[in-house]
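Researcher: First entry.
Model:
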Amino acid sequence: MNVLIKQAGTDDINNITALTMRLHKEYAHTAGYYDWDEFENALRNYYASNFPNGSCYSFIALDDETAVGTAVVSCYYDCPTPHNPTGRSAVLTGMYILPAYRQKGVGFKLLEKIMSHTQSLGYLRVTLTATEEGKRLYSKFGFQPVEGEMRYRFRSV
């Protein structure tokens, strides 16, 4: 297995979208609730709009020409805090490795590449929501759980 990790471009959007869809379908506990076609189109449009301006970027893992994994970071400005005076924030919004490539170092290499790139852009922190399976990888890399966060979801308007 000779997996190449590279920064994705707009020509990789279909592969990144397909892998991200697999992530959400694999871990969705209420799969029948979602309009997957609408979500897939929204995701593809988001990547197409935000890759060129750099507010979202991705790295992709390729085994020959086959996409076997991806990591996506979305960037935004938040209210400055003492810990983050610039307000620049990054979120690892999606990371997925095909099952046959898990536990083989592909995820760690992908995470190294995207985190190095994020740091080179001047971001001071990266947040994520981890699956149970992903927590082991993120902890090994150095992510720490954050206590005290809460979420509220509005129902459809």
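Researcher: Second entry.
Model:
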Amino acid sequence: MASTAKNPRAIEAAKSLHHVPWCEDYERMISGMAYSQFAPELSDGRLRARRLAKKYSDYFPDDATSQSLAEDRQKMLEVAFGKIGPNATVEGPYAVDYGSNISIGADFYANFNLVILDCGLVTIGDRVFLGPSVAIFSATHETDVQSRRDGIDFSREVTIGNDCWIGGGTIILPGVTIGDGCTVGCGSVVTRDIPPFSVAVGSPARVIKTVAHVEELKRGVSIFQNRHVDGDTSFGALDQARTRTLDSVQSEAGEKEPSRII
């Protein structure tokens, strides 16, 4: 059910984001109210997002090194998304509704075919890893058929905390909050909140275990500042960190043979 009043907190949060398509329907949209997707400012915002996503996915200079490509892509993501921290990696292609409603922390990694429908605010913390074909939906509709015929939509915010690992093919539905330190197994459908430091799998996703808490780090500070060793070596620290995470999950689960969550 759509909200009936604007959300001052969401509107205030959007003021810190870049390239926001401000208009009455935008404020209604991020507030979870019914709005018209055909508002000119929103149509222009979606067009801009698609143009930037195509440019990003097609960008691969012949003389690029892994380091120069990472640096160029970082700059492109800073233009495409509302806010993004240092050392972000998104493997193309990706698709978003607006991009401007997405806020991402430091050391973010997304594998191929990321989809984020960011009609509502989508907030992702530091050191979050997404497997291939992860889909994050903040957009939804009423079940009333005439409402859909009239092009009326609404949204619910999605939040993913720090140090999360979301397995490939996972779908995260509108209104979900995933707490810090969570792991979500491949192919899961997340329909409700997941508490911090949990491992969840399935459709709908359910918590099957919890993991040890770790110390909180300062928000937005990269732990991979020196990950580029030279022009031909990239993401070494990130790969090592991902391996440590996998080893930790396998060890706690008692697995004897390697397996992949992403």
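Model: Note on the second entry: Residues 8-212 form a domain with the UDP N-Acetylglucosamine Acyltransferase; domain 1 fold (CATH 2.160.10.10).
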